[in-house]
Amino acid sequence: MSAEILGIHGIGQQRKSPNSLQESWKFAAQQGIAASNEEAKLRSMEVAYYATLFRKGNGRLGREDTIEADAPLSPGEQRFLEEIFEDDLISSTGIRDVQAQVLGLTAIPSKVARSLVAVDRKFGRNAGKYLLFILRQVYRYLTDEDLSSAIRKKISESTSAATSVIPGHSLGSVVLYDMLLRGDLSVKDGCDPKRLTIVTFGSPLAWPTVRRMLGHGSHVQDAGCEWSNIFDPRDAITGGVALTGPRTVNIRVENGLLDPHAAVNYLRQPAVGSLLL
After folding, report:
1. Cβ–Cβ < 8 Å for 19, 178
2. Do 130 and 108 reside in the same domain of the chain?
3. What separation in angstroms does the CA of 214 have from each of 33, 34, 55?
4. Could you tell me if 72 and 106 are in contact, meaning their C-beta atoms sit under 8 angstroms apart?
5. CA distance 169 to 265
6. CATH number for 29
7. Nearest 10 degrees: CA dihedral of 128, 131, 137, 140?
8. 3-state secondary structure of 15
9. Are 171 and 269 part of one and the same domain?
10. What are the per-10-residue average pLDDT scores of the chain (277 residues)?
11. What is the pTM of this model?
């Protein structure tokens, strides 16, 4: 790859081809740029596609790609989710025991179920189920070293001397942050803010447990460069909050009620478009 803008996508992209995913990002990014500057055009842009690394079984698209959303929690996932909801971004105080089936899920501990109900109450119907699905893939990145190493290698190999903007969405923002702290990004001039723009959006880094399990500490660390974090307070994946850390600039946007977490909705924002110029 030799594009100036290298996107890092989030989870759940196994059913999209690299080309269709890339085209949807480019189309939305052009909208954001136009909303920011009518005369500006999108520079060369590509998306580092790693979704196939999450596939299980025979490698074909099928049931094995979606089973994580329905399968019972492993003991490790249960502990992870319980710790996530102890981060106090969302309070389940006052919510009585909830049957997981009511949420359209298989059996999960009542403590987690209560928290998912609290997520629904704060962010809207089915937000808890969506957050659960995303956090389970984030957990895989955090705990499967073979998988996480392969993802980082894929992205590192996708960078080049031409790379000047790296936007990371959802899990992609976690991978991007992890790679910055590891020094894994092979880009010209390193993190010189005059030559490299880092953008995270829809990021689960807002949850201290996610940051802690990366092994870099529970607080947002100095990633060696300035970066812009875009969040929608109605996006459950972000916990609805900004990131507080060294050289981190937060920008609040409104992506609408239908899907505030969608990458294309973030990319359409003028605030994001201005960062891609």
Report:
1. no
2. yes
3. 33, 36, 22
4. yes
5. 11
6. 3.40.50
7. -80
8. coil
9. yes
10. 89 84 97 95 95 63 44 90 90 66 66 87 90 92 96 92 93 95 74 80 96 92 90 96 94 95 97 95
11. 0.91
